[in-house]
Specification:
By secondary structure, this protein is of the alpha/beta class. The protein has three domains: about 120 residues, no CATH class; about 100 residues, Rossmann fold, CATH 3.40.50.20; about 190 residues, no CATH class. The strands form three sheets. The protein has a five-stranded parallel beta sheet, with helices on both faces. A hairpin with a 5-residue loop joins strand 6 and strand 7.
Length: about 450
Amino acid sequence: MIRPKFLIVIVDLLLAYGCLVAGSLLRLGFAEGLVRLNDGGFFRIICYLGAIALSAYFFELYDFQLFNSRKYIVHRALFSLLTAFFLLSAVFYLLPDLQFGRGLLFIALSLTLLGQIVFRLLIRKFSRASRFASRTLIVGVGALAQKIDEIVPRDMNRHSYVGFVSCGKEKPLVSEERIVGNIKELGTLIHDYRPHRVIVALTERRGALPLKEIMHSKLRGVKIFAATTYYELQTGRLLVENVQPSTFIYTDGFHITPFMRSYKRIFDILFSLIGLSLAGPFLPFVVLAIKLDSPGPALFKQLRVGEREVEYFVYKFRTMRQDAEKESGAVWAQKDDPRVTRVGQFMRKTRIDEIPQLFNVLKGDMSFVGPRPERLAFVERLKETIPYYSTRHFVKPGVTGWAQVCYPYGASEEDALEKLRYDLFYIKNYSVFLDFKIILDTVKVVTSGFGGR
């Protein structure tokens, strides 16, 4: 089954290509239009479609749950196509042979803009019909069920609902008005309410579930989820408190082969060299800005915990005043931390201070993508209070990572727990495609300034 986001991407690409063909025919006529369209070859079409898809991704035009406002759709689509125009202009400047010429790019992008807006307005309209309503039953009424309720996507469809099925062993922590029945009536409840998905959120399931009714419901098309599985799929993180040791052993994840490590190392070297070559011309200006802003060295090194809990020196641009921890010792950076310099605040927001870590990647101490490296003082403390915290050290730490792009800069043990959820999700589901997604999200984080302190 194709996920809605992927379906929107596919329709967008077909729409963009159709608008390019239509623009070519309108601008140049049938015969010349088809000839000119094929002049640049297949690569030109790929560049055109890639720029549109990438821009739409950065402006979150593939998240249909955000299509609540017409203003949101129009503004995001407009800025997305403007970004695509500048990207393609840069490509055509570097590769003149790929240019469309004679106003064709402007016409094609204008038609694409109109098509994207209309398509998303139609999604917004039809998603409110009863047949597209999201119906969910959560088996359980305790703390786990409450947590699952918080992450079930809410939409504007008045026919959507989330109901709870009580179990005699659990003390209800959810509103009684939302409890639709007892677990002994689960088969009847599924028949009456016709949910799209049933989420089993019981802390103790042995002997409590009517397995026959659940199996029959699944065979009839109802999606059945364990709470931890649904939480992982919906949030991109693991519910650490409810993860059992068997999860690490018997699931398909948490299995990084020597071959996977080998091609990850190749990508690490490639991306770090590209990053250093792009950033190289600007580094002297960064050093000068740091020197002018506050006394002290532009670079600093600090011991961090790496793979297999082996310490190494990490290199970063200095963002705090010199000897910032001389009196306090090792402490987390806080929001509006007075130790951070003016230039340092900007570098943390844009992640410029992380650039020297690319040398750590070349050395092999770090990976381009992985969990954030922590200091030994924090690691020893967190291992005592957070289950499975050491698991994050079975892979190399990264310059960027799933936790870094999904969650703000950590400044407490609670933040460390939340980031561990993301780190374990990354380790469990590692793939080259997930790495590429994280790299794209990192670009979005850098341009938006989210996540730095």
